[in-house]
Write a sequence for this structure.
């Protein structure tokens, strides 16, 4: 070994130890667990329809188009197939499960119906009901709360309305809350109602409205829910003016998801007949109709609490119906669902349920 080599060797050894130390410290400082909610990614330029999973929910190399079956029967596979359920929207099970609300002509919830009162049609073909229940089962609920500038005068009432909703809910329900203005913010992750209420005093109303982005985020969040029955409750005036996702992208996701959406519209009574107020309410109505939930328009913020209590009670009294489709094709096509309820004494009932689901794909 030459004198030059001997002089350099200790320096090289020292440098190797420094590099090793830096790498070790760097590994210790890496964040653990899921990353916090980030701003929504921009939609694609073509029609602003998003056909890939949101952000990086799906591992690299996984097909971005849903591949297993629709959102109606996730509850039957939640315990055994949770990881697959988180990556894909379609279903594996053959049992199609529906959560159904029935109201009379005055909008009041109808109780006491039996399984033989219901007739289920899939693509106009009658189906045989295999499961029927009215049990009060725990659910997973996402609260989507509008804190844009147009809600400034309603924030105090909104806090009390959420409190009333939680008070009337099943004690075993789990909740998360998303607040939104021009940005989408995770206010509280999955927790019980009492813990969630501690976050409400921090709500402040300001800025524009990114409703579609918030609902999109809420649907994706429910993929990680503990319970099979999943609901979003949206309180907003419905006027979207800042979202990166279009209504088309959102409706596509909803059709592929097993989520019911209940909406409460809070328009300005002095501007209710204007185009923008009417458009906002129409959007909320359509979100509920598409997913089998219900919409309520509240003309005064003081009525928010009563409406939230009504929705909480209804969710605990829904009819749960399951059937196995007579169509054995596994073609992944959209199948329309229609439900009829037998009239009693000439009474006319309205049924609120999902409008369809995607058929299974591939081999059973």
């Amino acid at each position: 070994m030459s004198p030059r080599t001997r002089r350099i060797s200790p320096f090289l050894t020292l440098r190797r130890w420094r590099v090793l130390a830096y790498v070790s410290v760097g590994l210790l400082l890496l964040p653990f667990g899921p990353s916090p909610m980030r701003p929504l990614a921009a939609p694609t330029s073509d029609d602003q329809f998003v056909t890939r999973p949101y952000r990086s929910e799906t591992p690299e190399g996984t097909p971005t188009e849903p591949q297993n079956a629709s959102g109606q029967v996730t509850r039957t596979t939640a315990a055994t197939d949770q990881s697959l359920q988180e990556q894909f929207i379609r279903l594996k099970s053959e049992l199609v499960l529906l959560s159904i609300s029935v109201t009379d002509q005055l909008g009041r919830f109808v109780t006491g119906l039996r399984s033989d009162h219901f007739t289920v049609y899939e693509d106009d073909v009658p189906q045989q009901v295999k499961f029927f229940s009215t049990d009060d089962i725990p659910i997973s609920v996402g609260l989507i709360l509008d804190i844009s500038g147009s809600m400034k005068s309603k924030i105090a009432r909104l806090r009390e309305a959420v409190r009333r909703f939680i008070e009337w809910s099943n004690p075993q329900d789990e909740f998360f809350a998303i607040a939104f203005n021009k940005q989408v913010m995770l206010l509280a992750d999955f927790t019980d109602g009492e813990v969630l209420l501690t976050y409400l005093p921090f709500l402040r109303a300001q800025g524009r409205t990114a409703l579609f982005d918030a609902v999109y985020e809420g649907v994706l969040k429910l993929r990680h829910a503990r319970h099979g029955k999943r609901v979003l409750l949206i309180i907003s005036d419905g006027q979207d003016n800042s979202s990166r996702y279009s209504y088309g992208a959102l409706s596509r996701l909803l059709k592929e998801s097993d989520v019911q959406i209940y909406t409460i519209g809070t328009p300005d009574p002095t501007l209710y007949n204007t185009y923008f107020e009417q458009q906002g309410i129409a959007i909320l109505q359509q979100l509920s109709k598409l997913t089998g939930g219900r919409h309520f328009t509240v003309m005064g913020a003081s009525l928010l609490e009563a409406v939230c209590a009504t929705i909480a009670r209804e969710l605990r009294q829904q009819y749960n119906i399951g059937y196995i489709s007579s169509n054995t094709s596994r073609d992944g096509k959209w199948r329309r669902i229609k439900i009829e309820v037998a009239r009693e004494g000439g009474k006319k009932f309205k049924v609120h349920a999902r409008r369809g689901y995607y058929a299974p794909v591939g081999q059973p």
Notes: Residues 3-29 form the longest helix (27 residues). The chain has two domains: 72-134+319-358, 140-315. Helices lie at 3-29, 82-87, 155-168, 193-197, 211-222, 247-255, 275-291, 304-315.
